[in-house]
Design a protein that fits this description.
The protein is mostly helical and 71 residues long. The protein contains five helices and no strands. It folds into two domains: 32 residues, no CATH class; 38 residues.
């Protein structure tokens, strides 16, 4: 199910807002849809460290950082 975060929703056409708003999606609850933005803002700090790692090691480091967050 596709949805547009509340921050970006106002940039869409009115007809699109109702179609892709979190307010009208069943089972979504009260969310702003911006959690991925907050997570990547934090994970940007490890970009320099993981750029030369193998893909498996990189995946493990990202998982470790995700497990350590409480967003």
């Amino acid at each position: 199910v596709a949805a547009v975060g509340k921050f970006y929703l106002l940039e869409h056409k009115v007809s699109c807002r109702y179609k892709f708003s979190y307010h009208w999606l069943p089972g979504v609850g009260m969310t702003d849809g911006e959690a991925p933005e907050r997570i990547w803002a934090i994970l940007n700090d490890i970009g320099g460290s993981i750029c030369e790692m193998t893909s498996g090691h990189c995946h493990n480091i990202i998982n470790d950082h995700h497990s350590d967050m409480n967003v």
